[in-house]
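Saturday, quiet lab. Running sequence design on the structure tokens for the scaffold JK sent over.
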């Protein structure tokens, strides 16, 4: 097995460095970001007033560390990645994304698309310049994955309320994208939609949302 030299920024191609391999300022900036997103300020200019779920925060952290690792693999010394501002520099962002594309035959993937979108959003959160935001928005748009046709994983897994796997008998909340708040107050429109589709009345309403 190839030896991993984290301190010198040398690692096998495709390996993702642990966050502790990066300079202390990068680690501090990342920790502050995660804390900020988990404890939003309702009066902040960025308008972030809802705390993100722990699973979402963990995913964001992994993706940012992964992207920083991609920059190292592209030839950027790990010692130069001293903050999140490095990641959202448009030239660095394109360089890291191209590094990822080099392993997918220049074809975007769900992961590449998500990281490009995350960099775009990070530029807004960090109050980057308009030029930086515009550049990252263009990159994200170019790498966006086209919407998937057919059933989504959620639909294939069955109805979120009654867990039916037959789409013809699943309740309208899953098929029609109703929120829990709407589900708590089944409307006449929902009932009409259910009747129009000739679906059996979902017996789970009273049990699930009582």
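Result came back. Writing it out in full:
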């Amino acid at each position: 097995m190839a030896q991993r030299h984290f301190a010198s920024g040398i690692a096998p191609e495709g390996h993702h460095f642990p966050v502790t391999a990066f300079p202390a300022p990068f680690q501090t900036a990342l920790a502050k970001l995660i804390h900020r997103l988990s404890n939003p300020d309702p009066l902040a200019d960025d308008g972030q007033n809802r705390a993100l779920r722990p699973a979402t925060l963990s995913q964001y952290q992994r993706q940012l560390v992964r992207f920083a690792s991609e920059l190292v693999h592209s030839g950027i010394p790990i010692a130069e990645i001293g903050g999140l501002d490095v990641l959202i520099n448009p030239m660095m962002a394109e360089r890291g994304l191209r590094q990822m594309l080099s392993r997918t035959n220049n074809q975007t993937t769900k992961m590449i698309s998500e990281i490009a979108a995350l960099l775009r959003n990070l530029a807004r959160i960090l109050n980057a310049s308009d030029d930086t935001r515009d550049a990252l928005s263009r990159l994200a748009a170019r790498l966006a994955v086209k919407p998937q046709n057919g059933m989504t994983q959620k639909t294939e897994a069955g109805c979120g309320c009654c867990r039916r796997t037959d789409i013809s008998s699943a309740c309208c909340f899953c098929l029609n994208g109703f929120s829990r708040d709407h589900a708590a107050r089944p409307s006449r429109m929902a009932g009409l939609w259910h009747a129009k589709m000739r679906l059996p009345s979902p017996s789970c309403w009273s049990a699930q949302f009582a």
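Notes for JK: The longest helix spans residues 54-73. The chain has two domains: 19-143, 159-209. Ask whether to fix the surface positions before the next round.
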